[in-house]
Design a protein that fits this description.
Elements: E1 21-23, E2 30-32, E3 36-43, E4 46-55
Antiparallel strand pairs: 1-2, 3-4
Length: 131
């Protein structure tokens, strides 16, 4: 008598060459111990044994690649003596009125600054901060 529902499950019992029987830790069926394999899973950059021994017939899972760590490559070597565009050099302002004057607000402030600094907004200005 043998088969899946026999007390020994899917394990083979032999008096001539006895071997150990083990239980699959997922499905609970009995197999020869040498037929049970460790379940592997990605942990960090390599596969790790998670100490779960399963049958290869139904329970062995493929390691999920989504659990693998992403290895970011090294930064590229910088360029020796780069020659960047001189963006900080002052460029003359060509915006103005028909008379050639700079564009100003009603209070007389210039709308375009040539000194490369950004002005801070005035909290007392009701146009910027309504009451």
């Amino acid at each position: 008598m043998s088969g899946v529902w026999h007390p020994t499950g899917r394990a083979r019992v032999s008096q001539r060459s006895p071997s150990a029987i083990g239980v699959c830790q997922r499905c609970g069926m009995w197999y020869q111990r040498n037929e049970l394999v460790p379940q592997l899973q990605w942990q960090g950059p390599k596969l790790q044994n998670i100490e779960v021994y399963v049958c290869t017939r139904t329970c062995l899972d493929k390691p999920q690649a989504q659990l693998k760590s992403i290895i970011i490559p090294a930064d590229p070597v910088p360029v020796w003596r780069p020659f960047p565009e001189p963006f900080a050099a002052e460029v003359p302002n060509f915006l103005g009125t028909e008379d050639g004057n700079a564009i100003t607000t009603e209070t007389g402030d210039n709308l375009i600054w040539e000194d490369e600094t950004t002005p801070l907004p005035d909290p007392n200005n009701p146009a910027l901060y309504p009451p």
